[in-house]
Amino acid sequence: MKKYVFIIFIFCFFSSIAQKSDSGYPYLSQFIKDEISIHLNNMVDFEFDEYGRAWILLTNSLVLYDGNKFESFPYAQLEIPDYSYKEIYKNASGGLYLVGFRNFAFQQGLKVNPNVVILNSLLKTWSPLEAEMVDIKGNLKNFYGFEKHTALINKKGFFYLKNKDKWIKKFKIPNPKITTIFPANHNCWHAYAENSYFKLDKDGHILASAAVSHSKIKDFIEFKGQNDKCFLQLENDEIILIDQDHKIRKNISFSNNSIPLNKVYHLFFDSKERIWIKYKNHVSVYDGKGNMIQDFPDINNQNIFWLGRFPVKEDNLGNVWIHLGFGFFYHSLIKNGIKFYFKDEGYSFRGMQQINDSIIYFNSYRGNGLFNVKTGLISNFSTYYNYFLGAFLNEKKHCIYVGTNNPNYGIYDLKKGKVFDKPIINKRYYHFTFLEKGLNDRYFWLGDFGFQSFDIENETFGTFIPLPSGHSSIS
Question: Which terminus of the chain is less hemmed in, N or C, by CB atoms within 10 Å?
Fold first, then answer.
């Protein structure tokens, strides 16, 4: 899942519904250029602590927003081990959980080697999950959150639920492939494996099931107010509804109308059961009966990049925050509406290689190309390759090796000004991120799980050197 699709981000702060303005809409929106917001590079998730402050999870640090200012806390400063954190959840007994894991592009719903730390958001200190569950070390299969609760499944197949300050063992999962369980109505449970949905009774016995054949399940969305149903997010970014009869539906039905789920990237039910829907490039809000409250088409005019995984959450005051994509929006309540702050970060370089005195090759979250430092002009720019990471110049072959953090790498031909993708190299995934030169003219590809020796002359591979569990060669 780590293709690092962008580096600049957006928040939207939506206030509770106010009285209608003269325009006839309950909300007003306004875009304002902002030059003081910090650079939220590589944001992956956010959450609100018990004091109502927003904690923004980056790939290399945490950012605290208290409503007035931003404060950055690199993991090294907090002395937190880097477990490649991707999710953050509120802890019912105070503080936050940071969840780190590895996963693959074709298995986004599986968490490989998950690790969890508990952050004291007031003291800025941390402790391992073992402080709450002594026997969980090396025994964790999944850790996740839903409305007012966190939950986990261990490798022995037991499902636990956090109730206030205690972890309660609920039951043993009925199918070993089940990775996630969350509440349904009448004390029942929804559950899923990669390709299957299950309805469980209060003791974990299977009541019904449904196969999901066209894509794997990667996440879930609760249907607040109608917990006999649920939504599932698939790896192809599609969202499907599982209805009360355990059938797959592609629309949300109401008494007088329905909302189609095609082209929906994310949806969220707030505490008042309003439905906030992210489409490809706009946001719409519906009431609990399926009537549109307002559409925000003016977001269309912003240069943003959308993906379904970007989070939608509600703060302690009932305000809904929506993370959109390129650009960074933070909230400022104005009379009768919303104010959007947009920060344009430009190309956001993340891999550079000098070719000669005037030309630099670069990778960025918008694409790759060549930059002339004397004229300031960019040439051979392509938005297609916006997932490249490291860049290494081979002067002899007049090319650049580019890392992808996938099971392959690319070669940028400087004469032709184009990229040639290497096919999938082997089954050891994510080892082609950065190419580095070692001693005695030896070369190594660095990746998430270890080092891959590389004969640069013949472009062949030698010994693979794995890292211990919980370590990363690129963190």
Answer: C
CB atoms within 10 A of CB 285: 19
In this predicted structure, the answer to whether residue 312 has a pLDDT above a threshold of 80 is: no
Distance between CA atoms of residues 13 and 265, nearest Å: 18
Buried-exposed string 150-178: b where 16+ CB fall within 10 A, e elsewhere? bbbbbeeebbbbbeeeebeebbebbeeeb
> By the 8 A CB rule, do 336 and 21 touch?
yes
What's the token pair of residue 38? 């910090």
Q: Which uninterrupted H or E stretch holds 4?
A: none
Which one is predicted more confidently, 3 or 89? Answer: 89
Q: Is the pLDDT of residue 324 over 80?
A: no
Per-residue pLDDT tens digits for 338-381:
444 334 445 556 678 888 888 888 887 678 888 887 777 788 88
Average pLDDT over residues 122-147: 89
Cα dist from 420 to 33, 409, 411, whole Å: 39, 9, 5
Bigger pLDDT: 406 or 455? 455
Confidence label for 426 from pLDDT (cuts 50, 70 and 90): low
d(CA 179, CA 107): 12
Residue type, 163: N
Q: What are phi and psi of 92, to 5 degrees?
A: -60, -25
Tokens found for residue 261: 């789920």
* Token duo for residue 146: 């839903």
Quote the CA–CA distance of 171 and 139 in Å, as a whole number. Answer: 16
